[in-house]
Specification:
A five-stranded parallel beta sheet has the order 2-1-3-4-5, with helices on both faces. A two-stranded antiparallel ribbon has the order 6-7. Helix 1 packs parallel to helix 5. It starts with a strand and ends with a helix. The chain folds into two domains: about 150 residues, 3-Layer(aba) Sandwich (Rossmann fold), CATH 3.40.50; about 110 residues, Alpha-Beta Plaits (2-Layer Sandwich). By secondary structure, it is of the alpha/beta class. Strand 3, helix 3 and strand 4 form a beta-alpha-beta unit. It binds flavin mononucleotide and iron/sulfur cluster (SF4) (2 copies). One iron/sulfur cluster binds next to helix 9.
């Protein structure tokens, strides 16, 4: 079997997993943001793997756009591996549905738990969830998670090599499944997250699409030295440097690469991220991420 492994990654977790899979499957590695330049994407190998982070118990927006471009899937063995911090939620079934709509069949989907790289909504007395705090994962826990993640790769590779199918990993409690069934992200989720990000006008965008506007909560503080790293690393070219400072362009994927990789820790999201330790996968370098654009 020959394989193509396509990945999206903000802080390197999914890239690290995709690299290992490609290496062990003797496959080729492709960055999804680069492939997005093509109008149609037709798999060239027997197997196509998609590797990506879980966002809000579902998929990153770019995965939706990527699958929309896939063609000629009928004879391809499709597999997915998502990385996540604590809850996979419904990411894999959502992907299976998108792939089915393109005429393909997701054979299997796995989750690899990795350090969490996002925000925790903070409950405040003066409002429901009214602020975000960057979640810091203690260094020992990071190490333990990364070591455990490595042990997940071999069984996944063996499964794929054997061409097996039928395993779809979901970690969703009753409430998560119910929220998904009732599509609560489109109502409660969307309005809560947009409110915290400071988006006040009504929008027709879906919950996933509305993440693009959430970059309004980013700003560079006085530690910014205008180095341009944030603009270079952004996978969707959503940052312009204007007069030495980043400006966000409202087509954000919320991957958090800009905030997590800024060498000055100068990028903040709202008012609760300053002074919080930044994260990226220890084996992934800035150059790997910039090349992945
Ligand atoms: C916008 C956003 C939403 C996230 N939502 C979830 C989530 O619902 N469940 C979860 O377990 N992790 C969540 N995470 C954490 C990431 O899935 C996890 O840290 C992942 O490994 C990051 O991969 P990357 O380094 O390749 O970007 C979220 C991260 C971001 C940036
Ligand atoms: S990476 Fe950080 S220091 Fe460099 S331009 Fe962006 S915000 Fe400023
Ligand atoms: S602006 Fe930042 S969070 Fe948004 S897509 Fe670019 S790097 Fe990711």
């Amino acid at each position: 079997m020959n394989a193509e492994v396509c990945y999206f990654s903000g802080t390197g977790n999914s890239l690290a997993v995709a690299r290992k899979l490609a290496e062990k499957l003797n496959g080729t590695l492709h960055a999804i943001p680069i492939l997005m330049d093509q109008e149609r994407i037709t798999p060239q190998a027997d197997a196509l793997g998609l590797v990506f982070p879980v966002y809000n118990k579902g998929l990153p927006l770019i995965l939706n756009r990527f699958v929309d471009k896939l063609a000629g899937l009928e004879a391809t063995y499709l597999f997915a591996v998502c990385t996540y911090g604590d809850t996979i939620g419904m990411a894999i079934p959502h992907l299976a549905k998108l792939i089915a709509a393109r005429g393909g069949r997701l054979a299997a989907g796995f989750g690899v738990r990795m350090p969490y790289n996002y925000l925790t909504p903070t409950l405040k007395l003066n409002g429901f969830f009214s602020a975000f705090t960057l979640r810091e994962v203690p260094l020992e826990k990071q190490r333990a998670l990364l070591d455990a993640a490595l042990t997940r790769i071999e069984p996944i590779v063996a499964y794929i090599r054997a061409g097996q199918s039928g395993d779809f990993e979901i970690t969703a409690d009753f409430l998560t499944r119910l929220a998904d069934r009732l599509n609560l992200n489109e109502t409660l989720g969307k309005s809560t997250w947009l409110k915290i990000a400071g988006v006040t006008e009504p929008t027709e965008l879906s919950f996933l699409e509305s993440r693009q506007l959430m970059d309004r909560a980013f700003h560079a503080d006085e530690h910014c030295i205008g180095c341009g790293t944030c603009a270079r690393i952004c996978p969707v070219d959503n940052i312009r440097i204007v007069e030495g400072k980043p400006q966000w362009q409202e087509r954000c994927e919320q991957c958090f690469a800009c905030l997590q990789w800024c060498p000055q820790q100068a990028i903040q999201f709202g008012s609760h991220t300053a002074g919080k330790r930044r994260y990226h996968h220890p084996d992934v370098k800035l150059a790997d991420m910039v090349r992945a654009k």
